[in-house]
Amino acid sequence: MSNRYVLVQWNRHKKIYDIVTLAGMVLFLTVYVGAGMIRHQSPSEISPPILLMRGFGVLSIVMLHIILSIGPLARIDERFSPLLYNRRHLGVMFFFAAFLHGFLVVGFYGGFGSVNPLSAILNSSGGGVPYELLGFMALIIFFVMAATSHDFWLANLGHRFWKAMHMCVYAAYTLVVLHVAFGAMQDKQGAVTPALLALGVVWLGGLHITAGLKQRKADVAVAEADAGWIDVCEVSEIPTSRARVVRQAGHEAIAVVNNEGTITAMSNVCAHQGGPLGEGQVIDGCLTCPWHGYQYDPATGCSPPPYTERVRTYEIRVEGGRVLLNPEPRGG
Amino acid sequence: MDNSGDTIYVGYLPVPKRYIALLRFVVPVLAGAAVGLSLVLAFTTRSPGQAVWMAEASAHAGILRERPYPFLETTDGPMLLVEPGKFGSINRFKGLEGSAIRVRGTLLERDGWRAIELLGHELINEELEINSIAQEATEVVAIGEILDSKCYLGAMKPGQGRSHRACAILCLRGGIPPLFVGQTAAGEQVAGVLAIENSDALPESLFSLVGERIEIRGPISIENGLSVVRVTEQEVTLAD
Question: Which of A13, A46, A113 is nearest residue B86 as measured by Cβ atoms?
Answer without folding.
Answer: A113
